[in-house]
Design a protein that fits this description.
188 residues; mainly alpha; two-stranded antiparallel sheet; 2 strands; 35% helix; 9% strand
């Protein structure tokens, strides 16, 4: 069930629409509100682009459908159903009997970002281009640990290699404790 339809309404599509329909609606609105073609509508263009960014990404769309805009802002990513209980009840100085641990699953690397000049006509017509990106491979000398020898890993100074940091907030008489992905090492 979709919790919030604001972004779907902005693009003029139904929540169950296919990726193709969403892309088609976005292109139409992007041309309509593009600042080069229609000055004075920069805000509409930004809103439409932001909506497309969420709805075109499978993970972001799933998060938006389940939690609405709060899910995108709240940083619920990287947690499974069991870890939410660890966040709420575990690792509170021994009160919950839990332990601090990092996010489950394989660690995600940084996104590869490259700029590419694209004309408005090519963009509208959906022209496909190829882009060669070089990427790093695991070093045979340290086996990908980053140390001088295999197993000698360098850990983040902020999270000490846990991949998460604990944030404690006081809210009146209550204390809220949350685990969040480390923003220094991005949980890697």
């Amino acid at each position: 069930m979709v919790r919030d339809t604001k972004l779907y309404d902005l693009l003029g599509v139904a929540p169950g629409s296919s990726d193709r329909d969403i892309k088609k609606a976005y292109r139409k609105l992007a041309l309509k509100y593009h600042p080069d073609r229609n000055p004075g509508h920069e805000d509409e263009f930004k809103k439409v682009s932001a909506a497309y960014e969420v709805l075109s990404d499978e993970e972001k769309r799933k998060m938006y459908d389940e939690y609405g805009e709060d899910g995108l802002k709240g940083g619920m990513g990287g947690m499974d159903g069991g870890s939410i209980f660890d966040v709420l009840f575990g690792g509170m100085g021994g009160m919950g009997g839990g332990r601090r641990r990092g996010p489950t699953g394989p660690r995600k690397g940084r996104d590869a970002v490259r700029e590419m000049a694209v004309g408005l006509e090519d963009f509208y017509n959906g022209r496909t281009r190829r882009l060669a990106i070089s990427r790093s491979r695991k070093c045979s000398g340290c086996d990908g640990s980053g140390g001088t020898k295999p197993g000698a890993a360098h850990s983040c100074d902020t999270c000490h290699g846990q991949g998460v940091r604990v944030v404690v907030q006081r809210m009146g008489m209550m204390v809220q404790q949350m685990q969040m992905k480390c923003d220094v090492c991005s949980g890697t």
